[in-house]
Fold:
Amino acid sequence: MSRLTHRAGGAYAPPVPREKLMVTSADGARLYAEIHGPQGAPAVVLSHGWTCSTAFWAPVVRDLAADHRVVLYDQRGHGRTPAVRPGGYGTGALADDLIAVLEATLGPGERAVLGGHSMGGMTLMAAAGRPQLRARAAAALLCSTGSAGLATESRVIPLRSPGLRRRVHRGMLGSRVPLGPVTPFGKRILRYVTMGAGATAEQLEACARIVHACPPVVRSRWGKVLYRLELTGGAARLDVPTVVVAGTADRLTPLVHARRLASVLPDCRGLTELPGLGHMTPLEDPGAVAGRLRALVQEHLAPRAGQAAAGDGVPSPQGERTPQQKQQKQSAQSQQSEPSEQQERQERQKKEKAA
Structure:
């Protein structure tokens, strides 16, 4: 598990959750999850990226939790979720874990807006073909992520040769070199690799404490998964309304990935390019990310004004009709099945003429 996860302060200090729980995944892995916000509010489920944790979402949660129920969880080996055996890392495990969290934290028939940053976005793509995801997802946000070719497209080490660039980035992704304590030099490197030039000292400090807390072995095992990543087919199966967000200065997943996703997604509702931002967009501009999530909830999850009360064509979460709809349907069927007085009079007149 990670260390130093909750040392940041101010707006970037993780808020206290309303509920904590451990979720069991398909292979028995135990996942730490937490729930923020009021019971019964529209649900948003967030999945963090490589080397991060639930703490990464802190400023976004602070924005949303007043009127949304926000579910967070730690990916395998990150935050408070224990590491697993060497063979327990892969895109299938990402999908299994997300499905397990959805089933454990959402009510019967309940749907949510799903958001994923970096490897968290890849998690959504990995699970796209699962029937459980289709039943639970009302809409999705893919933030600073890609579906394939991460080592080739990365601009962390800007070599001209694609082959050489791929080999160098492969070594970086699979490295087990300890990052050590957070130092000014370490933060300069982290800023270059993961954030835009305009990132504040507070944002950089929060990012450094989260990333440096990831165990080197876990970082390496997931890094090797990212090197081999091929989820373009998964992106093409993510057939819910989806918004893509990316920073224009992202070196880890440059804009080419976001633009490719926008062209592949079956129901892309827009690509937002955030000028000057790096890879850590939920930390660098939490308002923009929270704003896109809010909009998805309003458009695809929250009932329209007056519809729920009137039963005006809005099905229940399980797809059943509301009592008002049932009454309207029964009334309509009764009117269709019972002949009107005018019809009876016309029938009598026909019989009299025939006689």
Q: What stands out?
A: Residues 203 and 283 are 6 Å apart (CA to CA). The radius of gyration is 25 Å. The chain has 16 helices and eight strands. The beta strands are 19-24, 30-36, 43-47, 69-73, 112-117, 137-143, 242-247, 268-274.
